[in-house]
Amino acid sequence: RIATVIDDLTQKTLIDTHEIYRLFFDQTPAPVAMLDCDGHLVAATQRWYSELDLIPATATIDSLFDEIPSAGGIWREDFQRCVNGSLYRFGENEIEFPNGVSRWFSWEMSPWRVNEENLGGVFLFIEDVTSKKQAETSADEAEERYRELYNRTPAMMHSIDRNGIITDVSDLWLDFLGYTREEFIGHKSVEFLTPESAEFAQ
């Protein structure tokens, strides 16, 4: 009777543990996958599947490398480095999907262990950062347009910071004074004035 009770409790503990793991991977909001040392998908959160447009019932890490070659080319190498002893890998890369759509992902890898001696595999965390990258690209393009307009404006202009250090200068100003942009930017503006004008400016 005692043995039966112990066996029942053991089975209940295993079921409860399995249920906890199932709930964790089903409901956690983080896109993370658990891989074994051979690169096979052990478990993954629903968010991880949805980020990569994969079907949980059929997806494996090997099929991911096959179905999304650009992702496999990036992650396979760093996965192997983690398995070989690297404690942490991370990056941010553009991944092209088979349908021709490209998206940016930041990703992190770190090993997980069965015990102190044995490595179990690697955790792979991903995050879609396409919107952030698009915003950065737009900001860079806007900065480039501003720089082009500022440099080529038909006026002698320069900009200084609160310490009087030159930060920008127009092409016309450089042509008039005979300096290159490298010789001008980073210096105090008073250095290019006559002594009388410099004393008045200070």
Walk me through the structure.
The chain is an alpha+beta fold. Helices cover 47% and strands 23% of the residues. It contains eight helices and seven strands. The strands form two sheets. The chain has a five-stranded antiparallel beta sheet with strand order 2-1-5-4-3, sandwiched between helices. The longest helix is centred in the first third of the chain and has 26 residues, at 2-27. The model is unreliable at 1-6 (pLDDT under 50).
Q: How do the helices and strands line up, and which of them pair or pack?
A:
Layout: H1 2-27, E1 32-36, E2 41-44, H2 46-51, H3 61-67, H4 69-83, E3 89-96, E4 102-113, E5 119-128, H5 130-152, E6 158-160, E7 166-169, H6 171-177, H7 181-184, H8 195-201
